């Protein structure tokens, strides 16, 4: 999908950061998230807090949210911040469904370069790159996937993957 639509007034366009700048903002976000959550047990409270604080601290996070496992082979939209997300995604379909099926994180440099409907499900044409990670509970069961989109190509790298994996494991593991 190549056409862009005007972004809603409440959404800021993405702004890239260097790897060192990323580490700084992730550290600040992590400290805020962990101090606010404390020993919170409710998964939904954890998800909304993570979404809010990561989107607040990290300027290239355009869309941030969770897709939750429903049944044996489907994800359903969970807590998120940004424009409307896809409501349901089958395991194996698109980036989120692939991560749910394989249990492995995926970084996409340019979502517009993927086959739409199969490799990528375009919910918002302004999203240009993304990272999706599996989210596991302490018992190892798959809670869902964590999806982050940016309006710029190439926003995500190994710094994002490592920082997000560590944060998700610390909060949900």
Tell me the layout of helices and strands.
Layout: H1 19-37, H2 43-57, E1 63-70, E2 74-81, E3 88-90, H3 94-102, E4 106-108, E5 129-136, E6 142-150, H4 158-172
Antiparallel strand pairs: 1-2, 1-6, 2-3, 4-5, 5-6
Order of strands across the biggest sheet?
3-2-1-6-5-4
Number of domains: 1
Our count of helices gives 4
Distance between the termini: 36 Å
Oligomer: single chain
Rg over alpha carbons: 15 Å
Short description:
The chain is 34% helix and 23% strand.
Task: Describe the protein.
There is one protein chain. With 173 residues, this protein is α+β, with helices and mostly antiparallel strands. The chain has a single domain (19-172), classed as Beta-Lactamase. Helices cover 34% and strands 23% of the residues. It has a six-stranded antiparallel beta sheet, with helices on both faces. The longest helix has 19 residues, at 19-37. It is globular, with a radius of gyration of 15 Å. The chain starts with 18 loop residues before the first helix and ends with a helix.
Question: Which features does this protein show?
Answer:
single chain; 173 residues; alpha+beta; Beta-Lactamase; six-stranded antiparallel beta sheet; 23% strand; globular
């Amino acid at each position: 999908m190549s056409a862009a639509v005007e972004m809603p007034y409440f959404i800021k366009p993405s702004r890239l950061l260097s790897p060192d700048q990323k580490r700084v903002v992730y550290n600040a976000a992590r400290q805020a998230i962990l101090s606010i959550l404390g020993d919170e047990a409710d998964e939904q409270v954890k998800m909304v807090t993570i979404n809010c604080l990561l989107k607040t601290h990290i300027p290239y996070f355009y869309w941030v949210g969770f897709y939750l496992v429903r049944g044996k082979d489907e994800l359903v939209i969970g807590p998120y911040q940004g424009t409307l997300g896809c409501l349901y995604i089958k395991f194996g379909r698109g980036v989120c469904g692939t991560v749910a099926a394989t249990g492995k994180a995926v970084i996409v440099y340019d979502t517009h370069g993927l086959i739409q409907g199969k490799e990528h499900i375009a919910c918002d044409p302004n999203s240009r790159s993304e990272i999706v990670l599996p989210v596991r509970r302490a018992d190892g069961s798959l809670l869902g996937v964590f999806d982050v989109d940016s309006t710029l190509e190439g926003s995500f790298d190994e710094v994002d993957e490592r920082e997000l994996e560590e944060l998700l494991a610390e909060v949900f593991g």
